[in-house]
Amino acid sequence: MNKIHVRVADWHKDIADIRRIREAVFVAEQQVPPELEWDADDATAVHFLACEGDYAIGTARLLPDGHIGRVSVLKDWRGLKVGDALMQAAISEAEKRGLKKQQLSAQVHATAFYERLGFKIVSDEFLEAGIPHVDMERGS
């Protein structure tokens, strides 16, 4: 297996890879309606792609307010720390931009993953696209 690396993506140039990953994970696997998956925030977000060689296998985005979201890894690459690498890239980029606090809405089943990265639950459970979520934050 090639080494997995994460890079900042170009929304316009990398949109096909970002769409392929998010549609496989959120729309196909988790049944999120496409109209909820794609929003106006994509145009202003910093996007990240995790790649094995030249093949994109995961993605995430960082909004200008420090909100990290759309963290997704293709099924065959889960359990290989791809999500960790994406999150570290997003956190690092947020801090580089002076965003000392990062937030995210986590699917409840993934909270332990985010807690390992320093996030703490700051809300009660709620439904988003029919999936139980909680809000989480890290930093000051």
Automatic annotation (TrEMBL):
Keywords: Acyltransferase, Transferase. CDD domains: NAT_SF. Gene3D superfamilies: 3.40.630.30. One of its GO terms (molecular function) is acyltransferase activity, transferring groups other than amino-acyl groups. Residues 4-140 form the N-acetyltransferase domain. PANTHER family: ACETYLTRANSFERASE, AMINOALKYLPHOSPHONATE N-ACETYLTRANSFERASE-RELATED-RELATED. This is GNAT family N-acetyltransferase.
